[in-house]
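Haemophore haem-binding domain-containing protein, pasting as requested.
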Amino acid sequence: MTSSMRSQRRAVKVAIGTGALAGAMLFGSAAVAGAEPPPVPPPCTAAELARVMSGVTFETSNYLIAHPDVNDFFTSLKGQPKDQIKAQVDNYFNANPTVRDDLQRIRQPSADFRQRCGLPATP
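Structure tokens follow.
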């Protein structure tokens, strides 16, 4: 056997070995990829939360602009202790049930998202 034939055989063996290795890597990685847990369903992703909250924030802003008295009330709460804020908001909502209902309706997509995705409810 000549030296060029040996070189050719060696090249063929290397090519076959490389192909086998590449195939093992390809099929091996496919098996590992199949064993990974499924991705988080789209409705509960961080992107979807951001989308929901941006909509709630946008609608809240529109509501406050359209209702200056409500905007003034919430603006007046700045800097107060949280326990006082909660009491004042409760009193305000009791005196203004339409405002309470309007704001609950605006925040409903956030509540729905939190319930659907197993997140704690916000006050």
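Note for the archive: The chain has two domains: 1-36, 42-116.
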